[in-house]
Write a structure and sequence with these properties.
Blueprint lengths: L1 H4 L5 E2 L13 H7 L10 H10 L4 H25 L1 E3 H17 L6 H12 L4 H4 L11 H7 L23 H16 L5 H7 L4 H32 L1 H9 L4 H11 L5 E6 L3 E3 L2 E3 L4 E5 H4 L34 H15 L4 E3 L4 E2 L8 E3 L1 E4 L1
Antiparallel strand pairs: 1-3, 2-10, 3-6, 4-5, 7-10, 8-9
Helix pairs in contact: 4-5, 4-15, 5-6, 5-11, 6-11, 8-9, 11-13, 11-15, 13-15
Length: 372
């Protein structure tokens, strides 16, 4: 897997983009190719540099106190309720953090949740058309953008519209341009302002906004509940972590290995190439499975054992090579903030965990728990 991810000259992110499913039309492919995720060096490197300053360890340290405060308030609220759907509780922190980094008004941050649900959960009937934002509480520019939301997410023949297409995300792109206009008039110290000052083309700007709005929150929205479910399924490890909170950093790495939020990414072969004992011809799809690589017995002793003390832990849940996740440090910071608040509590699962239907995200839709 690592060989594929670090060899863009042989295995391209750009040729066919990075999802197993091909874009519906040549026009859709051309549009998504403008996304940083779907670029190869040197174009990928140029786009990455524009936004990288927002995700340095120094920049994240400046956010730590506010992230910890937000996590503390979320868990305190859940504790007062007693029984909650932890997926919903956990979803708030990454959405709030992302809105803060992007400069999205607080009134509009629920839109980030809805857009991510539509894109990531298009294979799941509950998520495919999800709309939870209260229109009356949105900013005027958000209410205007919402009028562009498609009335249907199906083609006339019943096939689902590709959730990453312009047609499916017309309201998101309308909002992106409205927010860009506001940031142009009054720039700030946020990712949106950096993007606008970075000389992006129209397509690059739209796809960068898409990448942040979706990838920036969906992975943690699944990773944090997945981590808690893993701990609940391994009570001895959970108890040991409660007894020794200094193990939290290594426990988080093991949660990420055991429950990788992203299960796979696609590349396209640029030439005929031999990969192990498999001959691959130019233009063929090559899919790397993070979930499988994280259980590779040649790398991880006893890979199916959940070990919160595992060191080293060379998991690939944040990818590898040129596309290693920019937000990895931010993700770890948010996970640490949430689980630091959970460790002193008694937590019991009160119902079945409900899995997201997806071949891409290792997601949970519902995780009912009680907290005392």
């Amino acid at each position: 897997m690592k060989h594929v991810l670090r060899s863009p000259g042989d295995f391209s992110s750009h040729l066919g983009a990075t999802q197993i499913r091909d874009p519906d039309t040549p026009e859709d492919l051309e549009s998504v190719r403008a996304m940083m995720l779907n670029q190869d060096p040197p174009d990928h490197s140029r786009l990455r540099r524009i936004v990288a300053a927002a995700f340095t360890p120094r920049a994240i340290r400046a956010l730590e106190a506010t992230i910890e405060e937000r996590a503390r308030a979320l868990i305190a609220s859940a504790l007062r309720q007693g029984e909650v759907d932890f997926v919903e509780v956990a979803a708030d922190l990454p959405v709030w953090t992302l809105a803060h980094i992007m400069g999205v008004p607080d009134s509009d941050r629920r839109l980030l949740y809805d857009w991510a649900s539509r894109v990531i959960g298009y294979q799941d009937d509950e998520y495919a058309g999800l709309s939870t934002a209260d229109l009356d509480s949105l900013s005027p520019m958000a209410r205007e953008a919402a009028t562009q939301r498609p009335e249907s997410f199906q083609h006339p023949d019943g096939r689902p519209v590709n959730p990453r297409s312009r047609a499916a995300l017309a309201d998101m792109f309308a909002y992106a341009h409205a927010l860009a206009a506001a940031k142009t008039r009054d720039p700030g110290d946020d990712v949106m302002s950096r993007m606008l000052a970075g000389g992006l083309t129209r397509d690059e700007f739209e796809q960068m906004f898409f990448l942040f709005a979706v990838a920036g929150n969906e992975t943690l929205r699944n990773g944090i509940p997945g981590g808690l479910l893993t701990l609940l399924q391994h009570p001895a490890a959970f108890e040991r972590l409660r007894d020794d909170p200094s193990l939290l950093p290594s426990a988080i790495e093991e949660m990420l290995r055991f429950w990788p939020p992203v299960m796979d990414f696609r590349r396209t072969a640029t030439r005929d190439v031999q990969l192990g004992d498999q001959h691959i011809t130019r233009g063929q799809k090559v899919v790397v499975y993070h979930a499988s690589a994280n259980r590779d017995e040649t790398v991880f002793p006893h890979p199916d054992h959940f070990d919160i003390t595992r060191t080293p832990n060379d998991h690939v849940s944040f990818g590898f090579g040129p596309h290693f996740c920019l937000g990895a440090h931010l993700a770890r910071t948010q996970m640490r903030a949430v689980f630091s608040e959970l460790l002193p509590l008694t937590i019991k699962q009160t119902g079945e965990a409900d899995r997201l239907a997806s071949n891409f995200q290792n997601g949970l839709k519902h995780l009912p728990v009680s907290l005392t």
